[in-house]
Write a structure and sequence with these properties.
With 177 residues, the protein is of the alpha+beta class. It folds into 2 domains: 2-97, Beta-Lactamase; 107-161, Arc Repressor Mutant, subunit A. 34% of the residues lie in helices and 19% in strands. The chain contains 6 helices and 5 strands; from the N terminus they run H-E-E-H-E-E-E-H-H-H-H. It has helices at 2-8, 43-53, 107-117, 122-129, 133-146, 152-161; strands spanning 14-21, 26-28, 58-64, 74-81, 90-97. The protein has a 5-stranded antiparallel beta sheet with strand order 2-1-5-4-3, sandwiched between helices. Strand 4 (74-81) and strand 5 (90-97) form a beta hairpin. The chain is elongated. The N and C termini lie far apart (38 Å). The model is unreliable at 170-177 (pLDDT under 50).
Length: 177
């Protein structure tokens, strides 16, 4: 497991981690603690595994702590596919760390941004969050300003690249427009 342990060192501030086995099981990553978000039945782990199974080599995303509105903030989860040197029975690893710079985005703005990354329209976001389209437009303007992008689409691209994506609780990968 040393190639995986070494790979986890690329995640700054890693505090917990698991090795994802090809048979669907998990093992605590040597040198790191376990965490409830990394439990075998965790929706966060299910989402990360789905991303790796879809062929992604690396994915970083946020997960709300204390419910969907992130009453206790967010955790950053980083999934890495199995390095070539690692045993074939392993599929990758998932590491938990504190979130880095959230660019001043509020939990609600992160939620709106996540829906935008999934390819939802402003009207769909408004219906899904039970707010007015005008409220969504205001959120999108603030998000674009905080991420220094001219459009919400570019904000979504930058956010996904920077790991500011809060995925759906179902564990399904985001739908692309």
């Amino acid at each position: 497991m040393s190639p995986l342990s070494a790979a986890s060192g690329f995640v700054q501030g890693a505090s917990a981690g698991v090795v994802l086995r090809a048979d669907g099981g998990i093992e605590v990553l040597p040198g790191l603690a376990g965490h409830p978000l990394l439990a075998a039945d965790s929706p966060a782990l299910t989402f990360a595994r789905a991303q790796l199974d879809a062929g992604r080599v690396y994915v970083s995303f946020l997960w709300p702590l204390g419910g969907r509105r992130a009453a206790r903030g967010h955790a950053r989860l980083t999934a890495l596919a199995r390095p070539e040197q690692a045993p074939a029975g392993l599929s990758g690893l998932l590491v938990l760390s504190a979130p880095r710079n959230l660019s001043g985005l509020t939990p609600r703005e992160l939620q709106v941004l996540g829906l935008l990354i999934q390819g939802r329209s402003s009207d769909e976001i408004a219906r899904g969050l039970a707010v007015t389209p005008r409220a969504v437009a205001a959120h999108l303007r603030r998000i674009s300003a905080k991420l220094s992008t001219p459009t919400p689409t570019l904000a979504a691209l930058r956010a996904e690249r920077d790991g500011l994506y809060v995925p759906p609780r179902t564990g399904a990968p985001p739908q692309r427009p």
